[in-house]
Each structure stands twice: as C-alpha cells, then as structure tokens.
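Hi L., both proteins are below.
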Amino acid sequence: MVILKVDSKTESPILVTGAAGNVGGVGRTVVQLLRQRGLPVRALVHREDERAARLRATGAEIVVGDLTVPPDVVRAMEGCRRIYFGMSASAPYLEATVIAAAVARQRGAIEAFVNISQMTVSQMSLTKMTNSPQHKQQYLAEQVLNWSGLPVVHVRPTAFLENPLFLNLAARSIARNDTIRLPFGTGRTSPVAAQDVAEVMATILANPAVHIGKIYELTGPKSQDMTGVAAEYSAALGREISYVDVPLEEWRDAELRGLNLPEHVFAHILTMARLHAANRYDRITHDVEAITGRPATSIRDFVASRADMFAPKR
C-alpha cells in the first residue's frame, strides 16, 4: 500500500461506520482512502468476516458492533474526534443516528461529524415528504444532527450508479436483450459513482475545519433522460443499448420484486423510481469537482469499467 502525505495531523483514529456496507461500499472506500493518506482509522463493522479482514489489511483498526446498541457505539467512538456516519438503508436508521449523536455529544471534543444523507432531502420539509420510509428517516436524522450542536457536515449524494436501478437491473436486461427497462418516462437523472462520494468524504475528513456546517450535494457530470443514459451505456459497451419505458406496476412486479429486497429497501427503491418519473432527479451540481479537484465520473466511464457485467447471455 502506498502511503501518501498526511493532509492534517491527527493522533486520534477517524471512526468510519458502515465500513463493510453494501451498495457502492462508500464506507469501505473511505477507509482505504484515509489509510492511503496515512491517517489512523477505526472501522466499525457489523460482523467479523472477509470484508473486515480486507479492511484490517489496510492498517485500519476493526471494531465489531451494532449502531443500534449504545454500548457498542460508545466503545467504537472512544478516543475518536472525527466521525464518518454512514449506514445502509434500513428500518432503524433514525435510531442509529440519534444514538451516534448522543454518544458524540457525551464524548465531547469532536472535530467533525460527517453525515452521508441523500439529495432528495433537499426537496423535503415537515409538510412535504416522500413515500420512502428511508427518505423520511434521513430528513429527520439531519434535523437531529443539526439540533445536536455537533460540528456537522451533511453530504447528500443523488442516486448511486451502483444502485440496482442502474447496475443490477440494468445489467440483467442489457445482458438479456440490450435494453434498459425502467419506469422513468422522460425524467432526467444524474447518478453519481460511489467512488466519487467516498473521495469527497475522505477529503473532508482529512481537513474538516473549512467544511463544518456546510451541505454538499453530489451528482454526476450531466443530467439527462434515459435515452441519453442508454446512449452512454452504448458508447461504453460498443453496441446499441436502448431504453424501454415500462409501466411502474409491471416493472415493480416483473423486475424489482425479483431482487428479493427487504421491505424497507423495496419501498425506498420503488419511491426512487416514482420520483425519477416525476423528474425529481433532474439535478446537477459541481461539488464533486470542487472538493476533489476532478470532475465526477461519467456513466460511460463507470459502465466501461464493469463491461463484463453487461455481456450478452450465451
């Protein structure tokens, strides 16, 4: 592993929660990027497994615990002054946020509490929610953190390119018949790569002082409809990929249910599909480039790097 110059001296470990998470693996990549900067990292994982072993191999300290168990969070946060708070979409998300905020307040001397949220929260209020229980919890979680008095930074990515909408489901239909089947209509979207999000997080955690109290919203480099998205898949894969607009109910039953997702996550992704059709994901920012110094990853480059996933079925 190459160790780069440390950006900001800290003897305290930086706590990264959700370090072995699933979609996109943002927490895992944050650990790797911080270690490459030579910064001490403590990674909180849910269980000891091969993912934990890979994190340990980077030089990170591993703590096994549950974000909904206060003593586990107290133990994980011991001696930490900078915190990355991330947790997979799940029913106890708000509970975990409240526990983390309470423990951080009790600890004191916190330099930064960097919270990964969602860009949809920026369009929400107490009288204007979405049908996603996850969106509701993330909106309320931001309120709790704002009330806590902690030195908070909110980072709100839009939909991830690693989301099943753009990866698993797209790979399945593209491999089958070179189509992307989604119920987005003419809605536009600007998905962001998890790697870009992780690089933003690591940059903030390395030198947090200038970011405290700010909100960053992360998108890909272009907002476009699904015909445009399909053209990027075509360019990446070297063959014609077309978009097929599917009625929501048909897509829900024929495609989404086949992923066998937990009900909480199923409802969340179904809401994301509805919001795409309502053009609620037509958002574009340049915060990735402003923080990392490089443009956000394009859909074309993202797909090209995973071309094997989209290979035709034999």
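That was the first. Here is the second:
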Amino acid sequence: MTGSPEVAAAARIGGPGEVLGPERVRAFVAERLAAVDLSGRSVCVLVPDGTRSCPLPLLLSAVHEALHGRVSRLTVLVALGTHAAMSESALAGHLGGPYPDTTVLNHEWWDPASFATVGTISAGRVGELSGGLLHHAVDVRLNRAVVEHDVTLIVGPVFPHEVVGFSGGNKYLFPGVAGQEVIDLSHWLGALITSAEIIGTRGITPVRALIDEAAALVPGDKLALCVVVQSGDDVLHAATFGTPQAAWAAAADVSAQVHVRYLDAPVRRVLSIVPQRYADMWTAAKGFYKVEPVVADGGQVVLYAPHIRTISAMHPEIDKIGYHCRDYFVKQWARFRDLHWGVLAHSTHLRGAGTYDPVAGERCRVTVTLATGIPEERVRAANLDYLDPAEVDLDGWVDDPDTLVVPHAGEVLFRLR
C-alpha cells in the first residue's frame, strides 16, 4: 500500500464449524483497518446487493466506526453487476446505518457516464488467460467512483460460483461494478468451460485469471474483507482481510468446506426451494447451478418459487432467445454472436449440459421445470418446463426417496463424491 506496509498474506478469524460473535467481528475489522495508513485518504467500499446472504449492517457499521474521522471521503458502492437497482428503503434495510458523512450509491451500469476506462487487455493476452478458448481484446471499464478514490475496500461473502469458481475478491470489481465488455467476455468464457465444470473449483480458474488481470489495471490501493456466511442467515463462519487475492483465497478455502455437500449417488429429481432474496429467474437460476452436478442423466430440477413472476426485467433478451445448452449457441454462432454474451452465458447456465446439431436438434441432459408465478406460456416459450406451484406437495417430496429437497437453494453446492 502507498504509505503503509504491503499486506502480503490474509489475516483470518474463524473457520469451518465455527461461529463468530458480533464483537469478535468488530474487533477484527477495527484491528485490521487500524494497521493500514488511511489517514486523509478517500475510500470506496464495494458491497454486494441483496442477492447474497451477508450481515452487511454488522460489517459496514464496523468499517464505518474504524474509518469515520480518519478518511477524507467515504463512499459505499453497491456492486449490482447488471442486477436491478436497490431502492432507498431496500438499501436502508440491506446496509443498516445511517452512516454519517458517507455517500451510498448503486452501481448505475445502465448509464455510460458512470464509467471510466482504465486500459485494455489484448486479444493475445485473453487467449493466454482463457487457455485458447477466446481471442478477443477487451476494454476494461468500471464505475468511475472506484477510480476517483484512493483506496478500494471490498466487503462481501464468498460462495461457490457458476462463472468464476468461487465468488468474492476482485469479482466485486469485475463484474460487480464493471462495464458490459468485461462482463460479456468473462461470462461467456465461463459458459464455454460450462457451469458444472467450473462451479466450486478452487484456485485460479481462467475466469478468475481474467478478472484479476482486469483488476490489476485499476488505479489506487485495493483491500478486501471477505466473509464466509452460513447459507440462509447472517451467521459468520470466518472473516479474512488482506489484498483482494489473498483475502479471497483464504475465504474460499473455508467456503469449500462449508458450502459444498457431497452425495454418494446421483438423484433423479431435485426440488430447489428458492428464497425470497431472488426476485426474478435471472438471479433464482442459482437454484439450478448449485444442484446440476448431482442430477442423473434424464433427471429433473424443479425450481420452486411462487413469488417470482418474471424471467428478467433487466435483460429482456432472454425472453427472445430462451434457455439452451452451450452447443446450441456455439454451433449457430452467426445467429447469436451479436447479442450480449453475458445473456447467452446465463441461458446456458440455467439449461445445463446438452448437445446440438442441425438435424437432431437440441438434446439437454436434464429437464428444468419452473414452479413459479411466471405464466405457463412464457415458461414454455423460454424452452423450459412448467409446473403449477400449487401442485407441489412439499412434505410429500421430502418423503420421496428419489427426490432431493434443497431449502434456501442457491448458495450451497451439491457434488458427487
């Protein structure tokens, strides 16, 4: 860090099987931030939106207490990626507060004026990072609030992730507050590898390498407070602090132990009960990503979410192309290459593995069924199966030996041994 000791390795409290009390967390945050020379400097704090389990009121209040009066300017920027903006009332509940002398912003990804360009990654370098899967130069743009502060502090959880392996760390920069170019490239790279292959993969995956390369172009100092949260609530197993790479790696080690469940044999059917934090199918699709690896060939995943009534308000393109396996797009690339690659990636992630050829058509490995508030005609037009949520007997499905029922679906990954 400029004017302070370099944070070479992450500090950590907690671990698998542990529960951290609020005072221990506050003391850890205070101690770690006190060790960094931030006097008179401006700090931009990146945080997740409401689609992740995380005790942000606890974490942000601890950060604010440690920084208020020390720094020249403090901004909290919600890393929406391309999710919907959070309202003032939603932000108040999500972040806690109020936080005096602190600016709170949504990442306005829809507004070109909100971005700054920090460099370009060449086609050759993208080829190296992607293992030869892609050879496209990419402009690296991100929210200008990051560039306009001296220090970026990333605060958020780490979970198994369908695009990058494990979420967190520099992912809060890219795609969290990134321009469309890096979002499209990184997500399509993940789609080419496939969600089932990359999700829950430890270490530096090709997508993580691309994200870290982009983050290296961002000016200013970068730190991260990463946490491992018990899925479905705000209980913390662990907290780590250091550079984004080091803090993420330490937290991912814990997440790999607490957020992955192993089965001895594949299951014929999964009922993923989608929590209220996912407001559309764009985000609720995590209920499929996390269980696809354990479903038998020809099996079925049912996403049960009566509260969801739309596929994606932010990405209407998905209504036009529907959900398809990777090869459906790859083998018809001329039809689809001009669409946002991030939308294509989402399509493949929810549809899962499959094949396509012009004669036999598309054949997907598993059936994906929506038991939601989305009208049947829209579900079937999107190339998914429909089930009236009123017909789902939750108790009966729990007792069915051929069905795995997953409460609070979307954060815990299921894999075969």
